[in-house]
Design brief:
It is a single chain. This protein has ten helices and three strands, in the order βααβαααβααααα. The chain has a three-stranded mixed sheet. About 30% of the residues are buried.
């Protein structure tokens, strides 16, 4: 379509999670409580790891980065949703929508790589404990983390490089509470088959391949532990269970949203809530409440705060 033949869309309208005001009030309270929990929980993990020298090891550095990414993913979408539910003004500018998608895919791509690095860390710790400090040295840990962010950036740029130049002449309604490529592309005033295929190949297949790689790594770890000591199987399962849960809940919605050929709006919205409101809470719960080192670090932090209060 020639650009002279259409009026360009300057903003998009979110249809949100529900059009019924009582349901919106319930969602407002629900999402506010969960978002505050996400902020406090993930900030606590980052704060404890940053200020407790006993936790300055690759495992906890990776954990702190996972908490930071989860916090950013929620902050990218949930406050806007809360504001829209409160005001009823559910619009976002074209530029704001593009920025939201760009940052979303940087964070999503970085978290995919980070989860692989965390699986590598657990493999070395469980299967090759004597080589752990050599393989997962602080320098290599920083290198891997930097690589995760660079790959996330490349992934996002590759996704949006051509999409942002699509023509938009209306409609401008997005049946969700945030911007993402599958819905954004469908609003373009042109044939979007190739773009949709590119998004599926980039985000969908990468998600499937990464999940498959992680599952294989978990199986390899468990088989290795079982061969060395069947009694160590329960400990290995306990160590990996939290990581496996986070991985499944992160990749499940990604694979469904980007690869399912028959999109159903209620399911997409449920998966979006799961991805941005439920999964980010699991990280601090799974890793903090079940981890002895984190519990001890919290006790040390509490003792230090009480000492400071007594001195003051």
């Amino acid at each position: 379509m020639n650009r002279a033949n259409y009026s360009e869309v300057s903003q998009f309208v979110f249809l949100g999670l529900s059009t019924y005001r009582p349901v919106q009030h319930l969602l407002l309270a629900f999402s506010t409580v969960l978002y505050v929990t996400i902020v406090l929980g993930n900030f606590l993990v980052v704060f404890i790891v940053a200020f407790d020298p006993h936790l300055h090891s690759p495992m906890y550095i990776l954990l702190a980065n996972l908490s930071f990414i989860d916090f950013c993913l929620s902050t990218l979408t949930v406050p806007k949703m809360i504001s829209d539910l409160y005001s009823g003004h559910k619009t976002i500018s074209f530029q704001g929508c593009v920025i939201q998608m760009f940052v979303l895919h940087i964070l999503g791509g970085s978290e995919m790589v980070l989860l692989i690095v965390m699986a590598l860390d657990r493999y070395v710790a469980i299967c090759k404990p004597l080589h752990y400090l050599t393989v997962m040295s602080p320098q290599k840990c920083i290198f891997l983390l930097s690589g995760a962010w660079v790959i996330g950036l490349i992934h996002s740029v590759a996704q949006l490089a051509f999409v942002v130049y699509l023509p938009f002449c209306g409609p401008n309604e997005i049946d969700s509470f945030y911007c993402d490529l599958p819905w954004f592309i469908k609003l373009a005033c042109t044939d979007t088959y190739r773009m949709e295929f590119m998004v599926t190949a980039n985000s969908g297949l990468i998600s499937v391949a990464t999940l498959f790689l992680l599952i294989v790594s978990y199986i390899f770890i468990l088989v290795t532990v079982w061969k060395h000591s069947s009694s160590g199987m329960s400990k290995a399962l306990s160590t990996l269970s939290a990581h496996i849960t986070v991985v499944v809940l992160f990749f499940g919605p990604c694979i469904f949203i980007y690869m399912w050929p028959f999109p159903t709006v209620p399911v997409d919205k449920f998966l979006a809530i799961l991805e941005f409101l439920i999964t980010p809470i699991l990280n601090p719960i799974m890793y903090t409440l079940r981890n002895k080192d984190m519990k001890m670090a919290m006790r040390r932090l509490s003792s230090q705060l009480l000492s400071l209060r007594k001195i003051s």
